[in-house]
Amino acid sequence: MPPHTPITVVLAHFDDLLAGGLRGLIESDPSLEIVAADVEHRRIPVVLRAHRPDVAILDIGALEKLAEVRELSASYPATRLVLLGDDPGTVECAQLLAFGASACLSTYTQSRDVIHAIHLASRGLQVLPRAAASAGDGLVAGGGLLTRREAEVLPLLQRGYSNAQIAVALQVGVETVRTHARNIYRKLGVSSRRELAAPPAPESKPEPAWPVHSPRSRIATPAGRTRRGHGTLRG
Q1: Confidence (pTM)
Q2: Residue range 112-122, pLDDT digits in tens
Q3: Domains located in the chain, CATH noted
């Protein structure tokens, strides 16, 4: 039987604490292979073109605009994009996924779920935290994601545009806007435009089972093997 081809991964630049945790976590999985790491955001297109990785892990905070994800996804369709941020909201994640990202995760996501997301993304699936992911409920694959048109309607709803104004801006019918709005409310779990525009309430951070600060801080078993599937990317 031929050897299994590893999933190739590119890591964008993150702060030292998070970068060490990410690198150590990925290197602990023999089915993953880092082909480039600590890549500055402006060089991401060059590196994706050179290495053609299966998955690229990017920093949400480095994006000048969320639409950059759509541009990267369209230019490098063979590379799945996993986005990490300090505390991305439901609406922000929905937009990123609609723009072509495969996963939108908090840096407080459990380590096992980060690995799970990379594997699912490499297979062409989209994943996002459940509504209660901060309580440790993990990830859910596919389903309930905004379409590209809904992702265009969403920011206009958040700015308080009327259905008629949105219809003019997007050159569609008012009834079409109403349909998109209803779908957005349903998918994002809100009941009104006012609720959609309101900033999300801060969520409590989970207590990590063990910190993943750097490769040196990982806990080893008595046999010298690294424990996997616990903790978060930030301690």
Answers
A1: 0.66
A2: 889 999 999 99
A3: 7-143+200-217 (3.40.50.2300), 148-197 (1.10.10.10)
